[in-house]
Amino acid sequence: MIKKRVLSGMQASGKLHLGNLVGALENWKKMQDEYECFYFIADWHALSTNYEDTGEIASNRLEIAADWLAAGLDPEKSTIFVQSHIPEHAVLHLFLSMIVPVPWLERNPTYKEKMENIQDKDLATYGFLGYPVLQAADISLYKADYVPVGIDQLPHLELTRELVRRFNGIYRCNVLKEPEGKISEVPKLKGTDGRKMSKSYNNAIFLGEEPASVETKIKGMVTDTKRARRKDPGEPNDCNLFPLHKIYSSEEDIREICKGCRSAEMGCTDCKAMLLKNLLPAMAPIREKRKDFISKPDKINEILVEGSKKARLVAMATLEEVKAAMKIG
Questions:
Q1: Which of 113, 115, 191, 310 lies in disulfide reach of 197, CB 3.0 to 4.6 Å?
Q2: Out of 4, 196, 219, 299, which one is annotated catalytic?
Q3: Is residue 291 among the annotated active site residues?
Q4: Cβ proximity of 253 and 245 under 8 Å
Q5: Is 309 a residue of the active site?
């Protein structure tokens, strides 16, 4: 039986954190046995906001690959590759950029949000406005059946679907495939300050982080802000620790936390200690595997080179179909 194809990627922006693990990597790992999986490091995408500072992109590729491999992505089961190793991404991006209406790009909610919130960078570039077109090229080159996304990412995928329909309509073909979103319901992990866990917010717990550093961060985490004093009852669902407990603590521990927090029998310090008791052993295997992989950059590069060779064969075949449909081959 021919397996359905899944494609996803991450920007080459540095080490990954627990939010990346539970929000994407654990899902990617599970899909390896059911689907034909293509996972890529999107180093060209990193240029959309960091075009002036490119010095760390190459090292970030290794960091991300080490995290992926340590988390369980298997190059024997999945094609793991690098976007910039496959020039066909840029060529299809060029072709699609010729047909995309500018209003489609300007209505992108992420574009609006970042333009408003990122003040220290000049984002008034086509590269930033048009990154969803490159994203559409990334997906379309591999004729992906599914793209794993969170609900908040569906508008991005819908633009890809619209571009595919527009391309096939203009050139009267059926070359590109409309991908479907494969929505994964995962807990939204908040960072140590209560905001979404993110490297850019400096509030993340990284997969390779040493136990002492994790302990310091957990002990400093914001909890239920309405629980001002030890004797005040709290509400676990309002606490930034609780999503981590729901992932890493046992049902028995969670029941104890809920009871103790709501009755004020348990303080936040006790709750953090219980989380560390469960979290640190869970992180240990990935941290140790990551250390092993990152100490062998040649092995990582070999995996990426071989994966890119395999992916490029697929990309080249699709691009030839595209050029034939456009009558420019």
A1: 191
A2: 196
A3: no
A4: yes
A5: no
